[in-house]
Amino acid sequence: MANKLKPVSVWALAAGGMVGGGIYTVLGVVIAVSAQWSWLSFAFVGLLAITSAYSYVFLSNKFKESGGAFAFIEEVENKDLAGSLSWMLILGYVLTISVYAYAFGHYVSFAFHGGPLITRLLAAGIVIALIALNLAGVGKMTKVEITIVTVNLLVLLALGVYGLTQWEPAQLVSGIEPRPAWAGLFGGAAIFMAYEGFQLLSYEYDRIKDPEKNFMPVLISATIFVVLLYIIVALGATFIGGAISLIDFKEIALSVAAKKSFGTAGVVVMTVAAGFATSAAINSTLFSTAQLSRRIADDKELPQWFSHKNSNGVPGRAIILIGAIAGLLAVIGSLSALVEAASLVFVVTFGIVNFICYKERDTKKWIPMVGVVIAGITLVALLFRVIISKPVAFGGLVLIVLLIQFGRPKLLKNQQKSAK
């Protein structure tokens, strides 16, 4: 029982999983799309996050196992969909790690007046360091993560609340054209990946103390808190920094706001908070993704190559491959493209999980149904935005999906023949 996660730990890890890289990376992106309606963007897709948290907990408690969406789909006996979605989930986590590494590089580089080369080296370096940490068998450091989360939440809350005391609505459109209210929908769709981190707790279900009693209220309250925090920070930081400044420096939007509020001291505090928060988010996501890959391989939905464990008992090959691809994307990718691609994966995943919950639930079916509807609306908005603004990136993502859908069965079949 000593190793079980108590409610406070679960709450902190859930909130930290979302906030760890979320608000640091997406604030400038959402302001560029939604301007004065950025707070509405966070609120709208926040409803999808809340209903999805409900669905994840219900299904975890019903099936009484770790594994998240992959396990849920297997339980409802749709093995082909489980396999395809698991590959898409791994892709989503790789993109998420790359976004966090991208943010780490930019925030730390800004503090030391580094150029593009330093920024790229920092992004690659943090991924390499955390790959090494995970290979050494010390990738999961729950107490350290909880400490980082606590400091991170306090810093963000302080900045947001201070910004609200400087109430100045004109700053929400300072230097840019006001947007119509429906822009809030497109902004929320573009940055939905900022909410995905809570689902990592579904992979830790076996470690949660008395999950049938604690998991639901803890995860729901953590998700609601993060939704409110994002709204507060979105408004407060923009009141301080002004819309155009946060857009022009979207990679380091919160450092810009902190500098305008508290000068060099603000930059130092925000850099430390961002650096540790994004590092913890990379570490947690890398660890969980590698473990998920091993489980999927054990179920023969990934090549057995991913099942291999090193001398420290960790899936070393998966850690190296996942980390290497994420590090490369962090170096060569653009922030908005990475964020939107990751958001697309998780909107689809959460929509499916809400639908499964709707089918499995006998009462309160309206909760997952709300999630299904919001996921559908968000998906349409995001597809429309990506097709119009990033047709090449969209084409690449479609190609990957087709390869997964049609190439995965053939690859696994060939592997089974080779094993015989």
UniProtKB/TrEMBL annotation:
Regions that span the bilayer: 12-33, 39-59, 80-105, 117-137, 144-162, 182-203, 215-247, 267-293, 314-335, 341-358, 370-388, 394-411
Membrane topology: Multi-pass membrane protein
One Pfam entry name: AA_permease_2
Subcellular compartments: Cell membrane
InterPro entries in the record: AA/rel_permease1 (IPR002293), APC_superfamily (IPR050367)
Keywords tagged on the record: Cell membrane, Membrane, Transmembrane, Transmembrane helix
Top-level taxon in the UniProt lineage: Bacteria
PANTHER family the UniProt entry points to: AMINO ACID TRANSPORTER-RELATED, INNER MEMBRANE TRANSPORT PROTEIN YBAT
Name the record gives this protein: APC family permease
Species per Swiss-Prot/TrEMBL record: Flavobacterium rhizosphaerae
Lineage: Bacteria, Pseudomonadati, Bacteroidota, Flavobacteriia, Flavobacteriales
